[in-house]
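Hi there,

I know you've been waiting on this one. I reran it after we fixed the sequence typo, so this is the corrected version. Both the input and the resulting structure follow.
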Amino acid sequence: MKTDSDLRKHPPRSPREKLGGLYFLARTIDKARARTAGTSGPYKITPGMSQRLFDGLGVSEADFMTVVDGGAGDDEIVAWVREHSDPAKYDEINRKYDEAGLHEEEKRAEFAARYPFLRERAELRNWFDILEYDDRWMFEQAAKNGGMTARYVAYKGGDGRIRPGVLGDDGSIRPFADSVADLTAFIALDETGRRAALGSLGAPIASDRVQLCAPVRPAKNVFCVGRNYMAHAEEGAKARGEKLELPPVPTFFTKAPTAIVGPDEPCVLEGRLSQMYDWEVELAVVIGKRCKDVSEDDALDAVFGYTVVNDVTARDLQRKHGQWFKGKTLDGTCPLGPWVVPAFAVDDPQALTVELRVNGERKQFAPTSSMIFSVKRIIAELSAGLTLEPGDVIATGTPEGVGFARTPPEFLKDGDVLEAIVEKIGTLRNPVRIV
């Protein structure tokens, strides 16, 4: 029986497939294995149908996951389920699944928010058909667009226009139709609109024939979080000769959109304003929908994808002005890119590493698990009383290893090359020009 847990290569098994006499057990095993392995791809791990199965069987999900995580095969899992439940109930459980559907219009309208295609596919009334339709589309579309690792980009072609597209594993870019003006416009579409846009991509273009640009340029300032890695907070306090005092909530500041530069674009920095330009690699979040007062539990559902930000900072201006905005928002101080990786490709944003190199020498390296405030917490705190919109960018803070805290301090020089790297996202490279 199939035991491959990588749902990025194939959809989960049919929810109608019987394994040991139970609908949904094969699918639940697939998703449980994928959740553990971090290979769920776009197939969301949601409690709904699997939890209904556990409840009907009287089986603990935690105990079930212990068996799966122990490496049990399908037959062993079936034997465990039969031992810990009453097989006489199986037909009744299957019947309830068969009858569960969206025949009532009120219920259908409620679930159309999650599955927008329900507004157009009136024939999909049973949950088995609905889920199989969704799985098939997700898998086929992802495969068509270069695999599950397809990335969203902005690029400048020979005509000088900046256009959005999808970069596949083969190195080619498939452009969006002209009706999608930029990546922010695509992000702002509902699920049905996104599907239609992805279904109408243009012919492939070799990426070495175009110039990649910053994938998104938010209408608002880029939101940023300060002092979000303990070791960085400690090194900063020590360098300033201050006692470390961490706030109970994230410290937010912003960088103006005019500070943004794209991948391989020079950071042109003015020497008359500062001689203390510093580096800060950061995982950045791209918001996928208009939202406000988001709970931590729902925070990752608001994420469209992830990218890389290098929060270049003029340290002397930062100190001179007594707050962070001026020293962090000069033109050329917000490299962003090289692309946006969809959220489904990053199973856990707290299970990545971030790294920064100057001229090939590693200066920063840390796991995102060492963040003081998680991505979920950051989104929840920032969205409290503040509307976030599609395409908004949140930089989540930088780890230890910045230049001003080194002994002796190090700052960027004309001709330096910066590489900001986030695991599973990519490398954002920028040369430095100080004029």
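Quick highlight: The chain has a mean pLDDT of 88.

Best,
R. S.
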